[in-house]
## 1
Amino acid sequence: MVISFRTRRVCLVLCVLLSALTLVLQNLWIPEGSEEQLPGKPRASEALPQYGVRKLALRLETLSSQIQALKRDNIPDRLDSLAETLQLLQKDHESSMHSVQKDLAMVWEKLDTLLKRSLTGGDTPPRTPLTGMPDSEVCKIPNDPAFPLCAGKVEFLRAHWRSDPCYAHYGVDGGACSILAYLSDREDFCPSLPGRNISQGPDKTHPKEGKEEAVIRADLTPLLELIGTGRGPAVRFMQSRIERLAGRWARAGERIREKLHHKPQAQLKVLLHPGVLAGGAGERFGELAERGGPLGELVQWSDVATALFILGHKVTFSTTLPELHRVIGAPPGKGSCPIQVPLPFDLLYTDYHGLAQLQACMGLSFNQYRCRFRVLDSFGTEPAFNQGEYSRLHGYSTAWGSWELQPRQYMTMFPHSPDNSFMGFVSEELGQDLEEEIQEHKEPNVAVVYGKQDYMWQGKESYLEAISQVMKIHGTVYQETGSPPRIPGYVLNHGLLSQDQLLELLKRAKLFIGLGFPYEGPAPLEAIALGCVFLQPRFDPAHTPQNSAFYRGKPTTRQVRSQHPYAEDFIGKPYVWTVDMSNSTEVQEAVRTILHSQVRPFTPYEFTREGMLERVFAYISHQDFCSLTPQPWPPENTLLARLGSLGESCTTVCLQAALVCEPAHFQLLNKPDTFSSLGLNCSSTSVEVNHLLPAYNERAQRCSLQREGLLFSCAGSDNSHKRLCPCRRYQPGQVALCQGCL
Ligand SMILES: *[C@@H]1O[C@H](CO)[C@@H](O)[C@H](O)[C@H]1NC(C)=O
Ligand SMILES: *[C@@H]1O[C@H](CO)[C@@H](O)[C@H](O)[C@H]1NC(C)=O
Ligand SMILES: *[C@@H]1O[C@H](CO)[C@@H](O)[C@H](O)[C@H]1NC(C)=O
């Protein structure tokens, strides 16, 4: 028991240090409260000095609870995670020292004022000594070595319980009993009071244990009811989409039930919180939707909600901050207290805005439950941007990244960033009968421009002019009353159309014309599904965060080579033509060929209802970021290791082999044996923190492995590393899944 004894001593020293630090930090803690986040604005908290302190305090909390756990249960298991937290703490410590110094100065100032006030008999409440309290007999501060922080915490709350109404909400009234009850029931800092029998500890059970089975549903009426009415234009848009497609979803549900052969899935409680709609930003976003603004996110939110509901899960929907507070059980106040555990949701789908909102209202519980978050993130987040410290040190810092979730917890619109999960949405699908009808209604001369706002048309005159010599161009451009849109006179403009009207027009049309913006929206897929050919500009040079205002500051290094890379790479001819917009000869040749070709309506399987249900089912069954030892998925035998060339990312290396990069397999690859199995000689082998690893340096015969799991990256590339890439095969039309990994 020598080890255990030593551990205990180390614990005690650590605990004393920690309580001191925690106290200082809690004094400095200024919660963000309900700070509003606007789309496109960086998270304000990042820039404030308090942010670092807050993060440091969160780590300390984690550390102290780990130490407590260490003494209660299995020591060797806990030591690893303790060491990890200590490492993180050290990193945070470095970056936070500056802000701590600043804040300490502030505290001195405050103390000074307080001292002066108490000397002059000011308005500070009289300090009742704990022993003088009526309840002191029952509620003595326990001297339990398992709860070394208890006394300090009680002192802190006695002085500060009024600083946040959440303490009062949990019954704290300034008396020792109420404080001890709070610190034992809610925060785990003190031992339970005698006679009390509440086990409120965080819910550590695996979310899928002991659940009912999810049963595939056909009726979407309850979903429409729980989304509710009267929530503004954005929610109305989603409701009308769900309503319009309800019948087809139900049929897809039936097909997927057969396909799954009664594979069981536990019924999960799922929260959907589109943060972008919450608060004032939501109204502006909704208003934009009515003027031809971006609808892609709303399309995706509707479809994710519908898919989860059809699959039989319990869906809750929140679009405002008060609703969010209510449904996750946040106490009223500024976020100093933990939420009422256990969190009533197994999974929380949100977006970047929603993450900040969740962090503000979950307080300490945010970190505890982060493994349950899923972030809808259309443009993707690469690992180098996701890891806070690394991104700061290596120039990958952006307003959006640094949340340090598992990269696969970010879910994209298109499968462009394999480090993330491809969530997608559903495109229009036609039955066989409708397909015939469409072929009859096609007017070969009709071309429709993809661009609802006239600024998208500027500078595209010669391109459109070239097309207009072959076909009649129609527009659906939003029109301000009194000011005609700035578009060429030969265009037949229908004004902004409802979704139904737009689909009718596309059914008649032969060609759908991309102007280069918006990037990667749902519309081209819908046009192709209705039998149109999509013509789009090639970007040379590629658009990147360096040269494109739109991608600037996004947490990605993607090279976007056309308006819709998915359409170009995964669909291609005869459905998609990518041209040099400035070359009228090339444009006209393409349009003439399209005019004389017969193209049938087409929808890639992964964008059908069935395909999306299958994918969401697979993610829910297999993606597990909460267990310490999750079941490997996709199965380990699907790994195909590849060595890249200099300058190639693993995304590229795998795609070139008609495979896809599978980040779940990096761990399997990150071993010295891999180099020899690929026939590489290592004159030295190192383990480093670098998002380009594992990799091989040919000249020096240097083999390098990855130390930091969060930094495994399909996307990373540079000219001195040959990357070791974990590729796998994928189902045709369903890149997220491999054969037999459903
Ligand atoms: C505590 O509550 C649980 C169930 O709520 C009960 O089974 C248990 O007997 C109680 N323990 C005591 C000491 O009252
Ligand atoms: C324009 O396109 C045509 C046909 O594809 C090609 O032959 C020609 O070289 C291109 N012109 C320029 C300037 O790229
Ligand atoms: C590795 O080393 C062995 C023996 O030293 C040599 O025969 C082989 O050619 C080397 N392979 C490469 C790829 O350099």
## 2
Amino acid sequence: MTDMISLAASGVQGLQPYQPGKPVSDLQRELGLKDILKLASNENPLGCSQKVMQALANLSNLADYPDGNSYDLKQALAKHHSLQAEQVTVGNGSNDILELVARAYLTPNHAAVYSEHAFAVYPIVTQAIGAEHRVAKALPAYAEHPYGHDLNNMLALINDSVRVVFVANPNNPTGGWLKESELKSFLDKVPKTAVVVLDEAYFDYVSEDEYPDGSAWVNEYQNLLVTRTFSKAYGLASVRLGYGLSSPEIADILNRVRQPFNVNSFAQAAGLAALNDQNHIERSRETNTQGLLQWQEACARLKLNMIPSVANFVCIDLQQPAMPMYDAMLHMGVIVRPVENYQLPGMIRITVGNQDQNERAIAALTMALEQTS
Ligand SMILES: *Cc1c(COP(=O)(O)O)cnc(C)c1O
């Protein structure tokens, strides 16, 4: 019998599928629970803007293909970032952009650089191509941003063979961030033969003074690709919409490998309407800032180390195996995210919800700690 596994491209054979947060419907089926709270995929507890719901209700023509060039959406995104439409690449989620850049720039003879404990999609898209992985040692546990990117370690791995460098700011699952001055001097040192992918999925949640807006730098660095998403602060994870901002040359290349209709009509309409409601982003940020404080206080009370986070999730050191705690919380109807697959055993990542959701999750965590101690 032919072994259909061994016939696959060798990089693909080495892949493990991405593990998403456990869906609510799975837990309902498995444990027969009704009232379930999912804080496992960094979704927005406020949902999306009402303007999006109106725009989607007005969509009428489902028989026609979407605008394959997403003209209106690209124009609006370009205006939003004071860039040209030729600098915008739209994607089926920003994960799509991450995959496009890997497919366009990596080969089995080239390498990608990323940090330990960085977003799981970077190794997946690199592995799928069969390119070399160069994983930079992260900052130590006692650093200001524990387990965050060590840009010097990353730089040391970059040479002529490196075509793609992934930097998440802030990073998922750790929640720490990089300052404008650090990132700028990093970009100055990275050779122009490597595309720097600056993943700003959580941009809208950050309000630190020294946190940079990478979109302002794409005219200065021809090798910079900034990625953003509508999945987090915009509350539109279900429609799958993200985008890249770059030099027109990078955008041109990504556009050549993109599926012709990678962004559907719902996503285009939703994105346009969502961009038009920046008040929703403001409210989402405020809710999140309050929620982060709630988690900080809870962790201090429970004597748990929480990695300081500027994103819409917290990564908590349980100082004990995470899986039993995760299971105990599942039985209380609260879904969180173990991060063993990020080489952070003993930690869980919890999405910041609204005040009531945080209270419920904190109560579940407290009870799980008592049960497992
Ligand atoms: C959630 C997330 C994304 C966004 O993924 P989408 O495909 O846009 O939903 C990208 N990067 C990081 C670091 C993330 O955590």
